[in-house]
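User: I want to check something. If I give you two sequences, will you return the structure for each one separately, not as a complex?

Assistant: Yes, each is folded on its own. Here is the first sequence with its structure:
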Amino acid sequence: MSNSNIVTFSIIIPTYNESENILRLISEIEKNLPTSDFTEIVIVDDDSPDGTGKLVENYINQQNNKNQKEVGAKTANCKVKIVHRTGKTGLIPAIMDGVKQSSGRTVIVMDADFSHPPEVIPKMMLESKMNPNSIIIGSRYVEGGKVVGWPKKRKLLSSGASFLARVGLNVRRVKDPMSGLFALPRELIENISIDTKGYKILLEILVKNKEIPTKEIPFTFIDRRSGKSKMDNGVILNYAKAIWQLYRHGQKSGHVTIDEKVNKGSVLFLSKVGRYYTVGISGLIINYLVSFLLANDVANSIRLLSNVWYLEASIIGAAISLTSNFFFNKYWTFEDRRFDLGSTAKQYASFIGMSAIGLIIQIAILYFMVENFVPYRISLIVAITVATTINFILIKKFTFKEKVWA
């Protein structure tokens, strides 16, 4: 056992309302730590209303009093620190504040809810010592790793997010770039500029340090049994923003490999598909509002039109929404800012033609599926999704003269 105060490992644990877990977690980590190195556990608390920070502070005081009374006791190989932060400002800033307050040569980041088992910490420490210039990642998706306790929806969401990160941001060398359990050299995390918000600091580190070797260690991720999950719509939105920011970072970084060009093309293609679908939804809303206003007494009361048959109203609504879709897609989706009369008229005619083809495809798919006893609701969703995607490709290639995969 090391009797020096030189810290080899700093374990950073951000907390918010983890009073049910934190003291037991500290105890389990201490039990599993090897005796050969001095380790500090740095709890970074975001002013938890449930008193998490106060619990840790009391624990530290108790341990200090105990050590003072036990004269001649063996020197401990671990100490606990608490960092109090005012306000809940996010996981990534909490991790970075914890790093600033730590002193270990190697930094280990983990969650406080027991989803990251303390038993895997010694394995990560050993790998870090064997590969001191590498990022060591606790992985759910390499052989031997798994997830326990997640519903199918959560598993699908996680797998999709990992796939998007690996393929879209070219971090294919790592199976689990979304892991919250990892170890890395202090200088690596100190010298990186973190720009994104949310919960996935490892992803940004991997994107901005593509030459750093990585090593994944399998572990079993167990969904929290105590406390409340931090996963919500805000987390998902921040992840989407982070993906876009990191993608833009890659565009500006200069050196781009052939694989990265392909990946960037993929992300750009998906980005435009997303915009196209968003415009389509806005068109449906416009179509409905116009048709409703014209076909109801509302039209007469505000003297827009009178005696409009509901089918005529629907046709007018469709025409207006189709026109709005064209201009929104031209300006936003395909970023074509040329609005001279000749070229715009040709594009508009082409847009109408391609939309008609898409409608025919949709009706054909819907008819085929319903006639083969697929429920109408499912058939309709599949038909609209497939037809809209094909329609997007046709409009991209023939209306706005862009390469399909770009």
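And separately, the second sequence with its own structure:
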Amino acid sequence: MFKSIFNKLLVTYLIIIISVISILSFTLSLAYRVHIFNKKEDSLNSVAKKVQDVADQYRNDELSKKELEAYLNSMGYTTDSSIYILKLNKETLENTKSLEEENEFMDGYLIDDLKEILEDNVIFRKKHYSKALDTFVVFLGVPLKSDLGIEGSILIFSPVNEITSNITRMNLIIWGISLIAMILSGFFIYINSLRISKPIKEIDSAAKKIASGEETKDLKVVSQDEIGQLALTFNYMKDKLAETESMRREFIASVSHDLKTPLMSINGFIEGIIDGVIEPEEYKESFKIIKSETSRLMKLTNDILQLSKIQSGVLQLSKSYLPVRELLESIVNNAATITNDKDISIELNCDNDLKVYADRDRLQQILVNLISNSIKYSHDRVNINIIAVNKENNVEFRVIDKGVGIEKDKLKLIFEKFYRVEKSRYSKTGGTGLGLSIVKNLIELHGGSIYVKSEVDKGTEMVFTIPK
């Protein structure tokens, strides 16, 4: 039952709402009951004060006994109560049998109440059954006072039926409204639980489709809350997976081609030698070609293995303080052999005393890769600038060329593994799309960062930092 988030939300919300409404309803019912009885007590106290005044007038011979009885009957009628004035003292209470015979309303429990009243206490009972009156009553007993002290008690009995009836009616109203509120709340909770759980179910369904290899559309983002953010993240993840899968396929196709071409070349020359098609005097040239193709295969496999080592955390750096200018001059001298065909000159700008804390082989690999790319994609008879400067706690390297440039929409992808910008225009340059991904990972392994600025047909600037 509670396996789905919809059921969990629905049941949880219903329990909370029903509990809150029930507690509020019970509190209101109890408060109304207390209010009604307090109001009744105040009313009976008011009546008792008037009876006290009338009793004082009777004591002062301002009223006759008949007028007193008439007044009490009239007041009892208007207040729906029975009013008694009882003159007694502590000695009278000792003869309870005589007291009960003289007063038909007298019940056994009243003897104890009368003792309390004669002690100058007010007794109020919210609901008590009177055998004499044969009904449940509200009872108020107050001392009857005179100038000489307490000379008796005023007893007022009022049927509780009307009060109970009012309380019952109010309870029905309160609980009726509560029931309606629960039903309406249940409806809105159902809709809200459905609204919250539906996008999650859609994400679950879409995730299962992706896992099974099916294509799925972008999820609709219907809210700006965490679930809406989850849908956005899911769409982003789906797009990234699609990009990665596309690059993976292109990579496999590219690697398959790059493996197949040298293997076919090697196989062709070996078969030619075995079959005697290639003359002995041509063996040396054939072996040079076989060695060149073998080197291509080794470079490809090394790139794949190295990227795997970096990303799995196996590759460890061996850092030391390196003179930057010396390293750059060595790389530039070695790069001169590739620039001859294009008549490209490399200009170096770096202080002699600049040093960086890095792994020499890995930093050299980073720079060689970037410089090689610049040469590869530059036009003929241009300059490539290599700059290294202090920048806060880092050494900043810049490799600036006047080459073909990169489109803006592709700049964010060039560091992705398997990605190659030159899918058609620059396919002749070769490559597997792993070089810049390796560069980025090596720089980040050093604790640095890299970014690129480029314009089509104007050139590219690669900027990276290594902590000093």
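Because they were folded independently, the notes below concern the second chain alone. DSSP finds twelve helices and eleven strands in the chain. The chain has three domains: 5-165, 226-312, 319-467.
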